[in-house]
């Protein structure tokens, strides 16, 4: 039997994602919190789990190095990868917003400077609203940008709202709700159809 490879996003959603796999009876040998290993096999050897930086999960799945991926909608949208998005795993819930100084009126700025870890998502949002923008790609601490004048606003993830609040910023527009999704390689979906369908069925009933 072919092994099914799952690329799972490292970081804050990893633990809940693994718990969900455990809920459908999939357990991995030698998997523990402090391990630096990146490849694990399920106890029955039917599934190989690879730990991948969240932003890279869509690439592994699109290229067929992984049959399935477990990753946030944020990274799926930004990657624009040619994969099937099959299931909302209902974990890692957060949302994309436009944030900035609470007194800022977006419509008053001719060409808005937008800092983001997600420039494609930012561009697509402002294309819809008709606002002309210039994007500035950052890799973290995005909330700093409007504070020190690098950008007018940010497009970023908000979960508790604490980071915005502690930096004196407010939500100016809501962009999109985010959660962790299951993505599938298009070729694998055809060639390993039975096993992938049965995996999906188990996940769906665990989520009900
Ligand atoms: N407060 C949050 N901030 C960022 N991502 C969150 C938050 N809550 C849930 N998520 C989800 O968790 C996923 C993984 O987040 P995590 O911060 O671990 O990865 P990352 O953004 O690649 O981090 P880094 O670039 O710092 O390594 C995100 O892609 C998003 O879908
Ligand atoms: O609404 P909150 O609960 O405060 O969460 C949102 C914050 O968390 C994320 O940052 P992260 O911790 O990944 O840090 P970085 O992007 O600055 O590396 C995100 O980019 C926000 O800054």
Automatic annotation (TrEMBL):
- List, for all copies, the residue spans of the domain called ATP phosphoribosyltransferase catalytic: 53-204
List the HAMAP family.
HisG_Short
What EC identifiers does the entry list?
2.4.2.17
Protein location: Cytoplasm
Species name? Virgibacillus tibetensis
Q: Which UniProt keywords apply?
A: Amino-acid biosynthesis, ATP-binding, Cytoplasm, Glycosyltransferase, Histidine biosynthesis, Nucleotide-binding, Transferase
* Primary location class: cytoplasm
Protein name, per record: ATP phosphoribosyltransferase
For this protein, the record's PANTHER family field holds: ATP PHOSPHORIBOSYLTRANSFERASE (PTHR21403:SF8), ATP PHOSPHORIBOSYLTRANSFERASE ATP-PRTASE (PTHR21403)
State the superkingdom: Bacteria
Family from the record: Belongs to the ATP phosphoribosyltransferase family. Short subfamily.
Pathways per UniProt: Amino-acid biosynthesis; L-histidine biosynthesis; L-histidine from 5-phospho-alpha-D-ribose 1-diphosphate: step 1/9
Gene3D superfamilies reported in the protein's UniProt record: Periplasmic binding protein-like II
């Amino acid at each position: 039997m072919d092994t099914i490879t799952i690329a799972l996003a490292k970081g804050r959603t990893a633990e809940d994602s693994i718990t969900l796999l455990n809920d459908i009876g999939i357990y991995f040998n030698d998997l523990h919190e402090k391990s630096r290993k990146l490849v694990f096999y399920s106890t029955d050897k039917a599934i190989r789990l690879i730990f991948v930086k969240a932003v890279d999960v869509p690439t592994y799945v699109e290229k067929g190095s992984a049959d399935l991926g477990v990753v946030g909608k944020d990274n799926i949208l930004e990657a624009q990868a040619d994969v099937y998005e099959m299931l909302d795993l209902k974990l890692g819930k957060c949302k994309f917003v436009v944030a900035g100084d609470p007194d800022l009126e977006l419509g008053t700025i001719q060409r808005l400077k937008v800092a983001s870890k997600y420039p494609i998502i930012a561009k697509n949002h402002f294309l819809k609203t008709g606002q002309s923008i210039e994007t500035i790609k950052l890799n973290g601490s995005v909330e700093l940008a409007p504070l020190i004048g690098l950008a007018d606003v940010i497009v970023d993830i908000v979960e508790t709202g604490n980071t915005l609040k502690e930096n004196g910023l407010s939500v100016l527009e809501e962009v999109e709700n985010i959660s962790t999704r299951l993505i599938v390689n298009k070729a694998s979906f055809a060639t390993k159809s039975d096993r992938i369908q049965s995996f999906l069925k188990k996940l769906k009933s665990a989520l009900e």
